[in-house]
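Design job #97: recover the sequence.
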């Protein structure tokens, strides 16, 4: 196989992807770029759906086996101030062995590797062991509408979904689930010149937040997926006037956990809020009422061993077993009983930063790993 040519074409595809901005809800142009590449590479079937996802299938040697699905999203977050970037965010410049641009590591570098993994076999006159379906989904960064549509309408058996979120070519076994609460502290507003007439809820909020960080350390940790964490994020008050004390103030609490339930977290928050006049609501509840889902595959499962051995064979070293800190579209598949793992080039900590980039060396290693996965899995 011509590795140099394969890698060159793969990187050039990643550059074209970066040069096609694709904010959530605006993925039409990039879906067309992906579709054209799938066609050029000789995928057996290419199709789209009503929400704008794009798919390509390469037939396996044994078409009776459930498919291997390679999943990446098509969208990315806002690049922010271009002045903070070492190169323009949509120019896809290569410097010192790294491809720079918004989406380089999350998710266009990994997307290019997933698409080119089947091409590696096809160009060598080979076929994957089982059908491989590339699945590029919309709106991952804003809740996962594309992934949800895919899983709800899935009409073929799936052996494994491989999520292409950046993992530095380690095998990610899962991540924690998300639950967000909105806690509102109620008081009484007054003219700011007469604080004694007010019941200023900012003090209750301050007392709550000052205990939160240390109290959260008591929450349970998962032995692979890590500790339960909480971040207070958005804070709002009812007034926009600087000379009025607020009638209420509220904060969004973003919990990440693989061990707690919605009810146990609710009890935790209630205990900290104590006697204060407050109300507590689930905010943008992503998961069902009782269960907080991420995804998780146990390190000693046969699936992990098979996938790890295949990647290891392609890369010349066994990938380390890790976990994602952030959430992925994998959380939408796990409730359906579909096995999910994550593996891709690109450093997780690069995602969503100014100056995002990806190492071409990691892309090359990842491509070798993926080609072997498709060949033997
Ligand atoms: Zn991503």
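Job complete. Output follows.
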């Amino acid at each position: 196989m011509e590795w140099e040519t394969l890698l060159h074409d793969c990187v050039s595809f990643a550059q074209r992807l970066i040069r096609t901005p694709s904010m959530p809800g605006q993925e039409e142009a990039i879906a067309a770029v992906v579709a054209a590449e799938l066609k050029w590479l000789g995928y057996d079937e290419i199709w789209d759906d009503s929400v704008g996802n794009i798919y390509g299938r390469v037939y396996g040697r044994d078409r009776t086996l459930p498919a291997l699905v390679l999943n990446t999203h098509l969208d990315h977050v806002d690049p922010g101030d271009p002045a903070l970037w070492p190169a323009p965010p949509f120019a896809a410049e290569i410097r010192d062995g790294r491809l720079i641009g918004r989406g380089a590591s999350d998710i266009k570098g990994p997307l290019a590797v997933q698409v080119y993994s089947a091409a590696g076999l096809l160009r060598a006159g080979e076929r994957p062991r089982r059908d491989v379906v590339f699945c590029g989904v919309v709106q991952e960064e804003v809740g996962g509408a594309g992934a949800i549509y895919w899983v709800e309408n899935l009409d073929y058996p799936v052996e494994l979904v491989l999520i292409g979120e950046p993992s530095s070519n380690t095998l990610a076994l899962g991540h924690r689930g998300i639950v967000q609460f909105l806690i509102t502290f109620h008081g009484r507003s007054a003219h700011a010149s007469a604080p004694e007439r007010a019941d200023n809820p900012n003090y209750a909020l301050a007392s709550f937040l000052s205990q939160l960080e240390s109290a959260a350390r008591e929450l349970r940790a998962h032995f692979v997926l890590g500790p339960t964490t909480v971040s207070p994020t958005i804070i709002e008050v009812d007034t926009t006037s600087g000379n009025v004390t607020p009638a209420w103030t509220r904060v969004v609490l973003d919990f990440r956990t693989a061990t707690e339930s919605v009810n146990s977290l609710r009890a935790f928050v209630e205990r900290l809020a104590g006697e204060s006049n407050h109300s507590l609501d689930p905010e943008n509840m992503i998961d069902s009422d009782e269960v907080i889902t991420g995804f998780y595959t146990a390190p000693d499962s046969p699936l992990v061993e098979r996938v790890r051995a295949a990647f290891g064979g392609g890369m010349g070293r066994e990938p380390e077993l890790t976990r994602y800190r952030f959430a992925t579209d994998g959380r939408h598949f796990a409730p359906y009983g579909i096995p999910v793992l994550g593996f891709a080039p690109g450093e997780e900590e690069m995602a969503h930063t100014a100056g995002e980039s990806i190492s071409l060396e990691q892309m090359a290693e990842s491509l070798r790993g993926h080609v072997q996965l498709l060949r033997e899995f």
